Amino acid sequence: SDYQQLDYNLRVNLFQGGPLETRSLMRDSYTPDIFQKAVIDPRHWHGRKISELGRWYEKYFLDLNVQKSMKKKYG
């Protein structure tokens, strides 16, 4: 069957994986001087401060843990 053929191909490793060199559409679209002119401010990330992002992720993962605990306890 098709599944057995796919299983055989995966076990034999006929699928060699991804390309050896990764390409970025953004890097291909702009000239190198754009990236040299770019100023990276480590305190701001797309208009948000890193501390704000950290607090958001902390609340997000706390909420996920509470949801998992409630699901485990009450089903």
UniProtKB/TrEMBL annotation:
<protein>
    <submittedName>
        <fullName>TEX33 protein</fullName>
    </submittedName>
</protein>
<dbReference type="InterPro" id="IPR029234">
    <property type="entry name" value="CIMIP4"/>
</dbReference>
<dbReference type="Pfam" id="PF15400">
    <property type="entry name" value="TEX33"/>
</dbReference>
